[in-house]
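subagent[fold] <- orchestrator: predict structure for attached chain, return tokens only, no commentary.
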Amino acid sequence: MNVPKEVKDYCPKCNAHTPHKLKLFKAGTARAMAWGVRQNVRKHKKGYGGKAEFTAIVKKQTKKPAFVAECSACGRKHYRVIPKRMKKVELQAA
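subagent[fold] -> orchestrator:
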């Protein structure tokens, strides 16, 4: 799906609809000391505990695309998620 690079969206700081620049959201690196990472290391990667089996999880094939919208007037950023699952998203100049 093609999404415009710039959209008019509500900015809570300006309290008005202003042009916003869209950028695809990309998650940062996971924290090494986060609880889930520590549990994974303890269960699957430490010691001589034999082969630890992973539970079979069927993952979804697509994601709901998330964008970071930046207000062109004040520079405030907020998330903008399209509530539909899609395999491919492209930002295009509109």
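orchestrator: received. Logging for downstream: Helices lie at 35-45. The mean pLDDT is 91.
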